[in-house]
Amino acid sequence: MLVVSGLSKRHPNASRPIFRDLAFAVHGGQIVALVGESGVGKSTLLNCIAGLETAESGSVEIAGQNMMALSEAQRAALRAQRIGFVFQAFHVLPTLTVAQNIAVPLLLTQVPRVERDARITGLLHRVGLADFGPRWPASLSGGELQRVAIARALVHRPPLILADEPTGNLDPRTAAEVLALMLERCREQGTAALIVTHSAHVASCCDRTLTLTPEGLQT
Question: Considering the entire predicted model, what is its pTM?
Answer without folding.
Answer: 0.92
